[in-house]
């Protein structure tokens, strides 16, 4: 079947709620067909504004910077975060202070997460 998704539109925004069965089925990576169905159900024909094929990623927008949280539920790896249409001036790890090169592979420790701050 299709993911259990409910959308409530208000003015120019919308809130999307995902049913338990669909979210639980996607808890573990490695379900590309379900992942595609979920993205299609949530975004429709809109392209994803950012992506990372090898890690789970969340974005939190703020006035001066966007914050990306990359989660790796696997062995250590290098990943590429594609911010697509978003343009940034800098990227750094606020926890370690390490400055990273824009577009370069990002090192993720095994079974951990990393917070990156992308300056606008």
Task: Give a description of the structure.
The structure is a single chain. The protein starts with a strand and ends with a strand. It is 15% helix and 38% strand. A 5-stranded antiparallel sheet has the order 3-4-9-6-7, with no helix packed on it. It has a two-stranded antiparallel ribbon with strand order 1-2. The mean pLDDT is 88. By secondary structure, it is α+β, with helices and mostly antiparallel strands. It has 2 domains: 5-43, no CATH class; 56-119, Sandwich (Immunoglobulin-like), CATH 2.60.40. The longest helix has 12 residues, at 32-43.
User: In the CATH hierarchy, what is the class of the largest domain?
Assistant: Mainly Beta
Name the CATH homologous superfamily of the largest domain.
Answer: Golgi alpha-mannosidase II
* Helix/strand class: alpha+beta
Query: What percentage of amino acids are in beta strands?
Result: 35-45%
Number of strands: 9
Kindly identify the CATH topology of the largest domain.
Answer: Immunoglobulin-like
Helicity level, as a percent range? 10-25%
- Number of domains in the coordinates? 2
What is the strand arrangement across the widest sheet? 3-4-9-6-7
Mean pLDDT: 88
Low-confidence parts lasting 5 or more residues at pLDDT below 50?
none
**Separation, N- and C-terminal Cα atoms:** 41 Å
């Amino acid at each position: 079947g299709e993911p259990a998704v409910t959308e409530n539109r208000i003015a120019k925004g919308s809130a999307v709620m995902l049913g338990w069965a669909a979210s639980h089925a996607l808890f573990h990576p490695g379900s590309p067909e379900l992942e595609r169905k979920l993205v299609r159900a949530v975004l429709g024909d809109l392209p994803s504004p950012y992506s990372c094929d090898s890690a789970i990623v969340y974005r939190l927008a703020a006035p001066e910077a966007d914050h990306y949280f990359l989660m790796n539920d696997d062995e250590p790896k290098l990943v590429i975060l594609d911010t697509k249409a978003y343009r940034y001036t800098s990227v750094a790890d606020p926890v370690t202070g390490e400055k990273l090169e824009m577009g370069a592979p990002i090192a993720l420790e095994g079974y951990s997460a990393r917070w990156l701050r992308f300056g606008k």
